[in-house]
Amino acid sequence: VQLQASGGGLVLPGGSLRLSCAASGQTSYRFTMGWFRQVPGKEREFVAATRWGGGSTVYADSAKGRFTISRDNTKKTVYLQMNSLKPEDTAVYYCAADNTMILSSMGTGSAYDYWGQGTLVTVSS
């Protein structure tokens, strides 16, 4: 599975941005795509994830109410709509995918086998 992320950029505080990540390759019922973010010098942080089979979604507390993850199964693409952005949301955002994900591991970075190249989101005035 290969992943191609896009959509990062510079946005004002309070603004919105939508990230996209397209997957290529074979997928399974348990195929899951997620978003993580990382600030230099800090650990990678889970943001949100969604599983194709069953449609389960999970969010980090920091994303609840502001971010929405969605997917287009036919395009094998996941989106992250980010609203009410804050300066602390500034990070490199990575999409990740896995074909054998179990629900309890959707928020765990080490459970994902495939990673995209990352896209930078900067929230600043």
How many DSSP helices?
Answer: 0
> What is the average of the pLDDT values?
94
- State the major sheet: 7 strands, mixed
Measured by DSSP, the beta-strand proportion falls in: over 45%
* Secondary-structure element pattern, one letter each: EEEEEEEEEEE
User: Which structural class is indicated by helix and strand composition?
Assistant: mainly beta
Q: What's the β-strand tally?
A: 11
Overall geometric form = globular
Radius of gyration: 13 Å
Distance between the termini: 37 Å
User: Low-confidence parts, pLDDT < 50 over ≥5 residues?
Assistant: none
Roughly how much helix do the residues carry, as a percent range? under 10%
- The oligomeric state is single chain
Describe the overall structure:
Helix content is 0%, strand content 48%. The chain starts with a strand and ends with a strand. It has no helices and 11 strands. The mean pLDDT is 94. Strands 2, 4, 5, 6, 9, 10 and 11 form a 7-stranded mixed beta sheet that branches. Strands 1-3-8-7 form a 4-stranded antiparallel beta sheet, with no helix packed on it. The protein is mainly beta. It has strands at residues 2-6, 9-11, 17-24, 32-38, 45-51, 57-59, 67-72, 77-82, 91-98, 114-115, 119-123. 36% of the residues are buried.
